[in-house]
Model the fold of this input.
Amino acid sequence: MKRRPKIFSVTKAVKRNARDRVGTPRPEKVLPDEKSKAEHRAAKHKVTLPKLLHQTERD
Done:
């Protein structure tokens, strides 16, 4: 079975040329999240009025 010739892509050619001249881009750095997952999850939903009133009745 014959292989099909690859179609020329200008975008890929330009990127390949840039990588040859400048080099490969640096990998991304993942910055640590300021809030912990629990704090972030808690801040996602606001407390509703009935829940807020129910909490104050217990106290």
Q: What stands out?
A: The first helix runs from residue 10 to 22. The chain is about 50% helix and 0% strand.
